[in-house]
Design brief:
Elements (H helix, E strand, L loop, with lengths): L5 H9 L7 E2 H10 L4 H13 L3 E3 L4 E4 L1 H11 L27 E5 L8 H12 L3 E4 L2 E5 L5 H11 L7 E5 L4 H8 L7 H20 L9 H20 L13 H26 L31
Antiparallel strand pairs: 1-3, 2-3, 4-6, 4-7, 5-6
Helix pairs in contact: 8-9, 8-10, 9-10
Length: about 300
């Protein structure tokens, strides 16, 4: 599994905090588990502080900054992702077997400077909310999330979509465009992804239960494994497009969420002694929940390693 960067490791460790901040010695020690040097970590901390993404207190302890809190809050909502689903109005197949005309949420994204900071923030916002590109600068997703268009617009803006982008409801697509829209997510690849990830979690959970025991993982190996595998599962859920029936069958995502919640508890056990040693009060296990790496381009298709 790919190892975390100094940046992603810092974000993921700081996102575990219940309150307060994390001492730099804890960040340095954790970085060492993943082969990240102390110098690399300290350079990263300085850059993130300058960007306002983390903050340092008078004692040299770090916490997430305001610029990172909205993204962290969205990612950490993975525990209830499947509960956001509601019926998809207008999507039902007609009495003669014709395809229904579902209602969509559309975003007209005006990107004048590709690869700019604003571009990357917009790409990440669209990716986090399951949008895909139907036509040039027009992105959409099914209108099947609780709260409808208004709630989705607010959420997009919170995580970085430019306020100049139009967010609106869209329906009555012609039959060809409707079929094209429904095919944007390669939905047939989602169910195998859910199943594979859930089985990997279950197998790893058994290994973690034997950590530091006879023929079991060493504790540091267990910390690394739970961080990487738990993070991959959370990233899969956080970046799931939350598609409706009939595009996907329901139920399997909820099973993956339940398995990931169990695995998170096992990960907390692995990390508990380390975090206690450094005086860190945490509410969840550290996991490699990177999302920025998947948002290097506007999501016109399923990003590699996200839902494939």
């Amino acid at each position: 599994m790919p190892r975390p960067t100094a940046k992603s490791l810092t974000f993921d460790l700081l996102s575990t905090l219940r309150r307060g901040a994390m001492p730099v010695r804890a960040l340095v020690a954790a970085a060492g588990l993943f082969g990240i040097s102390e110098n690399s970590l300290r350079v990263c901390l300085a850059r993130l502080c300058a960007a306002g993404q983390i903050e340092r207190d008078s004692r040299g302890r770090y916490r997430l900054g305001d610029a990172a809190l909205a993204i962290d809050g969205h990612v950490q909502s993975w525990r209830h992702a499947h509960e956001r689903l509601c019926d998809w109005a207008g999507s039902e197949t007609g009495p003669s077997g014709e395809m229904g005309r579902g209602r969509w949420v559309a975003v007209q994204a005006r990107v004048s400077r590709p690869r700019s900071k604003q571009f990357r923030a917009g790409a990440r916002a669209l990716l986090l909310h399951g949008f895909r590109e139907l036509a040039d600068n027009l992105y959409l997703r099914p209108d099947n999330l609780s709260g409808g268009v208004d709630n989705l617009r607010d959420s997009l803006l919170r995580v970085g979509l430019d306020a100049q982008c139009l967010v609106f409801g869209l329906d009555a697509l012609d039959a060809d465009r409707e079929a094209q829209a429904r095919s944007l997510w390669q939905a047939d690849r989602l169910a195998p992804l859910y199943t594979r990830t859930r089985r990997e979690l279950e197998q790893s959970e058994q290994r973690l239960a034997r950590a530091d025991g006879l023929n079991g993982l060493g504790l540091e190996d267990a910390m690394v494994e739970s961080f990487l595998l738990g993070g991959r599962a959370i990233r899969t859920i956080a970046l799931d497009p939350l598609l409706p029936h009939p595009i996907v069958e329901h139920g399997q995502l909820a099973e993956l969420v339940a398995a990931t919640r169990r695995y998170e508890r096992a990960g907390r056990v692995c990390w508990a002694a380390f975090l206690a040693e450094h005086g860190v009060i945490h509410q969840r296990a550290p996991v490699d929940a990177r999302v920025d790496d998947a948002a290097r381009a506007l999501p016109s298709s399923v990003p590699e390693g996200v839902s494939a």
